[in-house]
Task: structure prediction
Amino acid sequence: MNHSEIFNNSYERIKQKNDEFLTLFLESLVAKDEAINNMFTGVDIESHKMKLDESLADLIMYYISQGTNASISKLADNHKHVHGVTPVMYDHFMESIIEAISKIDDKFDSGVEQSWRITLGPGIEFMKNY
Result:
């Protein structure tokens, strides 16, 4: 099975437990960095979960389209100029995604981890360097 198939299968398993996945992800993310935690103070978490779900879709589409699209450029601009997201915070984002997947996906292994890194990595790198 290639990494795209592994990713797609894992993504489908994650989507079945989407709310739990997003909660675990956000808990992990805010625990990694005080500045990130402060960004979420007073934020409607349920609303932010929907935005996160859309952001994941943007990152996946960036990978599929193999390049910049308007959605990810807007997302990167907003994160950099409105929220002050730094490059290291994107590293925390990726690690938090992987941690949440490891807890939710009952078939999680190194191949699943690698498939997520391969799929989300290009979009995250674009945003880090925006």
